Amino acid sequence: MAKTVIVGGGIGGVQASQILSGDKDQEVVLITNEDFLPYWRMRLEEVVNGADPSSIEIHSQKWYEERNISLIRGEAQSIDRYNRLLFLKDGESVGYDNLIIAMGANPVRAPIDGPQREYVLRNMREAIELRSALEEGAKSVAVIGAGLLGLELASGLAKKYSVKATSIESQSSVLPKQLDPESGDFLKKRLKEIGVHIVLGSQARYAEAGRLLLDDGREIDADVLISSIGVRPDVALAREASLDIKRGIVVDENLRTSDKNIYAIGDVAELDGVSFSLAMFARDMATHVANEIISSSLSLYIPPLPSTILKVAGIDVAVFGEKDGFGHTFHKGNGRVKIFTEENTVVGAILIDAKEYLAKARNAIGKPFEKEVFE
Ligand SMILES: Cc1cc2nc3c(=O)[nH]c(=O)nc-3n(C[C@H](O)[C@H](O)[C@H](O)COP(=O)(O)OP(=O)(O)OC[C@H]3O[C@@H](n4cnc5c(N)ncnc54)[C@H](O)[C@@H]3O)c2cc1C
User: Fold this and answer.
1) Residues 336, 357: contact at Cβ < 8 Å?
2) If you take atom 16 of ligand 1, which residue's CA is the nearest one?
């Protein structure tokens, strides 16, 4: 029997454990350092909004037991690569044939001076702490970062807690990672119409009880301050084990680290200079690695086409592929479709409140651009 140890009971770790446990020749150990059963991280906002933590669990305790997955609560601290042993903080050690590092990422905090606490939202503990702060009668929330998570939080909290929510972004448009500036402007206008306050091109500098000061002198109401400016892969264990790391743990085309018995998947991994930071990649990489381990053979990992489909304050936003190249815009009622082409081949699409074009946009990627499809 081969033994696979997975560090990190997040979305990638659980997916890998599920597939590996389907093979009778695999012994599977899943190590989590959280005090909760593994949960859907992207649903943490539900807990902030009052849901019971157990409502977002991925599986029950029984599910792991039935599959003989040993779920260990502990903090992986170091690896003896020569003897293939993983050491936990409490001194225990676990032997492995294959090790999968699925430790995810840690939130980056905005550098803000002053006594005001800066909340982040990455794990269950932080969701519960944020909820308590909001329930103490907050009337205003300032969210630093108008990215995917920041905008969802600002709009969601405004609705649930009836607070004045302001989203502050240092760049000049919203969702700067996903949208080109023109689509960002369009979304900003739509968000404004429905009462989400957005401040662009400013840095938050100082925060004290109830207020946040920006570098341009503006003052924002902020009973609760939340930082949502991105994440950094958690490379602590890999660094300690002298694996190759850059921003994330460097993996090859088979998702192996610089040690052939150690894989890295999900937010912690860096493939061809890219850390994906999306749940779909964590699951996809987990599936790939688990199948490689089961079949004892390596296969080329080809990441799926990046796609993001989200709702920001009730507005549908879908992003496929690249946002570079030439943009063709089609207005659709209150929404619009923007198709990006390179040498007349469709390389990406951004849809704002135009979900009836989802399938058409997805199908168009990689094919010659046909204007009539979107008119
Ligand atoms: C609020 C929120 C909303 C999001 N919304 C979306 C969305 O809409 N769509 C999307 O695609 N993505 C979304 N994401 C991102 C998505 O959740 C991540 O991309 C995904 O969880 C990555 O999975 P992972 O398995 O790599 O890591 P994670 O899910 O982060 O799991 C890593 C686990 O490893 C544990 N760990 C770390 N170090 C150790 C150690 N030393 N020992 C043991 N355990 C350890 C961590 O505590 C954690 O439980 C969201 C994230 C958040 C926080």
Assistant:
1) no
2) 279
The 10s digit of each residue's pLDDT in 166-209 is 999 999 988 888 888 889 998 888 887 766 899 999 999 999 99
Does the beta carbon of 341 sit less than 6 angstroms from any atom of ligand 1? Answer: no
Residue 321 CB–ligand 1 contact under 6 Å: no
Distance (angstroms) between ligand 1 centre and the Cα of 9 equals 9
Residue 30 exposure: Cα atoms within 13 Å on the Cβ side: 27
Q: Which atom of ligand 1 is nearest to the CA of 77?
A: 41
Give residue-wise pLDDT tens across range 244-280: 999 999 999 999 999 999 999 999 999 999 998 889 9
Whether 103 is in the pocket of ligand 1, judged by its Cβ within 6 Å, is: yes
Whether ligand 1 lies within 6 angstroms of the CB of 72 is answered as: no
Q: Whose CA is nearest to atom 31 of ligand 1?
A: 10
Decide whether any atom of ligand 1 lies within 6 Å of the 348 Cβ.
no
Is residue 371 helix, strand or coil? helix
Domains of the chain, start order: 2-106+231-295 (3.50.50.60), 109-227 (3.50.50.60), 314-374 (3.30.390.30)
- pTM exceeding the 0.85 threshold for the entire prediction: yes
Closest C-alpha residue for ligand 1 atom 25: 12
pLDDT at 41: 96
User: Cα(196)–Cα(157) distance, rounded to whole angstroms?
Assistant: 10
Those residues of the chain that have pLDDT short of 50 are none
DSSP secondary structure letters along 96-129: -SEEEE---EEEPPP--BSSS-EE--SSHHHHHH
Edge-to-edge strand ranges of the sheet holding 26-32:
69-73, 26-32, 2-7, 98-101, 262-264
Can you tell me which atom of ligand 1 is nearest the CA of 127?
Answer: 1
pLDDT at 321: 85
Can you tell me the distance from the alpha carbon of 93 to that of 264, in angstroms, rounded to the nearest whole number?
20
Rounded to the nearest integer, the mean pLDDT of the chain is 94
